[in-house]
Write a structure and sequence with these properties.
Blueprint lengths: L2 E5 L5 H8 L8 E9 L2 H11 L13 H17 L5 E7 L2 H8 L4 E6 L13 H9 L4 E4 L6
Helix pairs in contact: 4-5
Length: 148
């Protein structure tokens, strides 16, 4: 049995399902994952500092309750596509670290990568990049459908 873990972030969840619908039949089990972390404000501050910009206004981090709602929404979206899934959330200092730590060799992680243009290492965000580099199993990166 090959289990797919869809990693939802609440940004383009419908696009993730649409991008993967052609090959979903290859998997026999599904989980809808969402990770949360407590270091987003620190990371935004570091980026602003590197670019000599003023610090960003306080950014509320995704907490366990929000992550649970996003994962449950992922389960509902998968159900609309005829796929039964279980919601799972992971917490830690950084969502990428939490997902990579929860990954397993017998799971295929499915990540959306529709937020940046182009190809190559910089075409995905820092969370996706960390998961791609550090997951314990295979990672499938999907380009989500661009909204116009």
């Amino acid at each position: 049995m090959i289990t797919a873990a869809f990693c939802f972030d609440g940004v383009d969840d419908e696009g993730l399902i649409a991008a993967g619908k052609e090959f979903l039949c290859l998997f026999s089990g599904f989980e809808a994952w969402c990770a949360y972390g407590d270091d987003a404000q620190r990371l935004l501050g570091e980026v602003a500092e590197r670019h000599h910009a003023p610090p960003p206004p306080h950014h509320a981090n995704v907490d366990a309750e929000q992550a649970d709602a996003i994962a449950k929404r992922g389960v509902a979206l998968l159900a609309q596509a005829g796929i039964e899934a279980v919601a799972r959330i992971f917490g830690g200092s950084d969502p990428g670290h939490a997902i990579a730590a929860a990954s397993r060799p017998d799971y295929v992680l499915i990540l959306a990568a529709g937020h940046r243009e182009g190809s190559g290492p910089k075409s995905v965000g820092h969370v996706a990049r960390f998961v791609i580099d550090h997951a314990r199993g295979p990672v499938l990166v999907l380009r989500t459908v661009e909204k116009r």
